[in-house]
Amino acid sequence: MRPPPDGPVTLTFEGTASRGGSSVRVGGGGEDRGTRCREARMGSQGNGRFCVAAGDADGTERGVAQAWSEARARTLALLGVSLLVAGSQVLLPLLRAKDLLWGASGDPPVLRVLEESRLLVDGAAYSALHRDLKKRGLSPSQLLSAAKLPEPASRAAARAAEIMEASVQAMRRRAGRRPAGLPTDALPQDLLDVIANVSGCRVHTRPPRCPGSCLADKYRLITGACNNRDHPRWGASNTALARWLPPSYEDGISEPRGWNPHFLYNGVPLPPVWEVTRQVIQAPNEAVTEDDQYSDLLVAWGQYIDHDIAFTPQSTSGAAFGGGADCQLSCENRSPCFPIQLPANASGTLGTTCLPFYRSSAACGTGAQGALFGNLSSANPRQQMNGLTSFLDASTVYGSSPALEKQLRNWTSAEGLLRVNTRHQDAGRAYLPFAPPRAPPVCAPEPGAQGPAPCFLAGDSRASEVLSLAALHTLWLREHNRLAAALKTLNPHWSADTAYQEARKVVGALHQIITLRDYVPKILGPEAFEQHVGLYKGYDATVDPTVSNVFSTAAFRFGHATVHPLVRRLDARFQERLPPLLLRHAFFSPWRLLKEGGVDPLVRGLLVQPAKRQAPAQLVSEELTDRLFVLTSEGTFDLASLNLQRGRDHGLPGYNAWRAFCGLPRLRSRAGLRGVVANGSVADRIMDLYKHPDNIDVWLGGLVEGFLPGARTGPLFACIIGRQMRALRDGDRFWWERGGVFTEAQRRELGKHSLSRVLCDNTGLPRVPADAFRVARFPQDFEPCADVPGLDLDAWREAAPPGDTCSFPGRVENGDVTLCGDAGQRVLGFSCRHGFALQGPEQLTCTPRGWDSQPPVCKDVDECRAGAETPCHVSARCRNTQGSFRCECSDPYVLAEDGRTCVDSGRLPRASVVSVVLGALLVCVLAALTWTAICWW
How many domains does the chain have? Predict the structure, then answer.
């Protein structure tokens, strides 16, 4: 810079420049005598001031202006370099992510990969099911899949997790990476966030919003959320099953035990599950030994309670990720397909080399997707989801989601009743309603009828699996409606919702009482019950009640070894009303309840028929190992192999690991195994297959152990079942014995009730055994229903609110109001029906001047815009309706059975038909005119 003629000029800049959170300091110094400064601002990038020192001379304005101009240019250059350096921290990761996010070298962008994964997971499963139903009915594995379709909330969570899993695998393949350390290697966080959000998985990992009104302490949420206020997801539906031991996956993250044929355990591969079933587990129907103490009703109750606390959705996709092969046809291990391999001699007989098997869906943010949420793979391996609440809360009756609860309730009833079947009755008593028309009709038709029949609708989708299960679901439907009507009569001022919630609360308490007081001690024996469960000491907020993976997938499946191969139905004199029914003919057959005598004959058979005795040499009858869910004369399906494969799918550690967990000694040899298995030849066959005690699958190991005194399980399963039941009790804020849940008078009445009393109140049986779980002889072990104690509902009588300034408000449109609060204080809690949201206060308190606020209103929720993604499939349009939504398709597409996906109807669009008709009409008119012209000419 040339100095002006009047003398030297010195110019400096002082200030800051910023970009992307980085700050650069430029220049320095201050204004003193002989120095003139001018404030300067450079857009949004920096600010400061220019200062000119003129030395001994008085610089001219021209010199100063020239100095300012040149110095500004220099400073801008300096700022540019500084900002480039500072901004590189932001720009470089974006540039690195660009190739994966938007594609490079012709690769599709991540959004396209996500859409491809979405289409793969959806896979037209429902339309394929629809075609199978029309053509040939369902195979056993397809029937199992259809019956285990989760309700919409669970299906959405499972689908989101699978879209995420498929997307991560696709991005790995495109990047040419294999999992090492982090399952997503060095994929940028920006990319991971896109996958998490667009897949819909992020929303399923967020903590729920817990209500703050008095209702939160009066009634449990239908989802089980917010039971523990500090850990609101504990025990809630659609959350991961608990892990009591780290999982054993072959890659440490997700691959099941037995996934890789060359993977060795203690020097040997795991034996195929089919071989284990055939050589150790299967027993002929004729070889069954009957239990000398307990009835078939004990077995039915175990299955019913299992369906109250655990349901693990299997993959919602029917095709292998990345390849698209149909899991019904493929015998390759490619997630979600994990087929049960058959030996050559069996495959020749059955015409296939494997049985289809779908992996359980991963919970969002686990397994291959774990790093999407900032978790290391070693700390966040694949977890499986429980679609139900973990609590003993009668979700078999009421469901585990608001959407299903909405389907089950009779909203026109002033008594808070549940819906019943409108087409059939059982001697004046109610049956379960049928599933809605859009649900796949997968149940067996009655003889002579064409096509599959609808199944029953209940709080759990498996209600129609077998007749005994359908009977118990029916009994509790009737019990709820009986209680709700009686409570409403006692308390005419109660709203329909209050009557419903109070009856639901009582029914849930009865499930807890019958299970912990009457069922579990018989399974564990008195000593193990005292050791692992013990007396109730109150609610413990540090106890996680979430159902554990090993309990759901292994220990509580001990009951499969107690299922009798015959179903008996008896008349009022307890004689055979109909010939005994092989179990294979009782699967998915609601028509047998409706057309062959109703519930009563089946209940009589459950009371007097002994359960199958669990013995090492005859574990599971051939009805379950050969004919599970086989509704036709062809096919085979195997429950024992399914159980073993499911344990491996879930990465359950081996038998010895769980013995160590329970404080039992590890088995080191063949002799050690013979010491815990009552039958030495069975122990030898197990060792011949597994070669080492550590390799034994936990379900099989626990099943063959000798019983504890007075028990129906060995020490390992007694430990796991006992620990789980104690957690379900002690970690439940709404457990019936906890102070404040019921009054002392109500607890006394509840303690009198029993399953026998439920039978008296909801069947036509005039006499029942005092203990319904002990095998009974008629008539000596039966007593009149008049002598069986039950609830005195007068303990639930509530005084009507006084007619003061705080008058009880009228009906809340699309919602309800309940009186709650401590004694001496009147508080109203407000709630809205599913599909509506409260606007205004959640509760009102009575003051001397009246209610402290105006009541809230229930406003319709726009489901099409409320969530992270539309509830309809991308092939359909979402239209909001009052309290719900509707998915619509463009002609010629129609909605599939799920009500959310569009499938091709197979016909021409209506517009095309109209065009053809108009074209034909035009041709006819032209032909007529031409003919007329020719004739005239």
Answer: 6
